[in-house]
Amino acid sequence: MKFFLCVLGMVMIVEGLPYFAFPEKMKVWMAKALELSPGNMRIMGLMLMLAGLLLVAMGRAGD
Questions:
Q1: What pTM was computed for the model?
Q2: What share of the chain is helix, strand, coil (3-state, %, to 5)?
Q3: Domain boundaries, the chain
Q4: Measured between alpha carbons, how far is 51 from 53 in angstroms, rounded to an integer?
């Protein structure tokens, strides 16, 4: 559970950093994201999940 909380905290830091550092650019990026089709967003989400799974697998391989 401690590891999960640490990972969740790191995800929140990484996710929040662009909003803190570049709020104006994030508004523009969000407006562009609204223009994407649901299919394209699903593909992007799938690719991000697969990349995350690969990173987790690579990190766990060292154990």
A1: 0.71
A2: 90, 0, 10
A3: 23-63
A4: 5
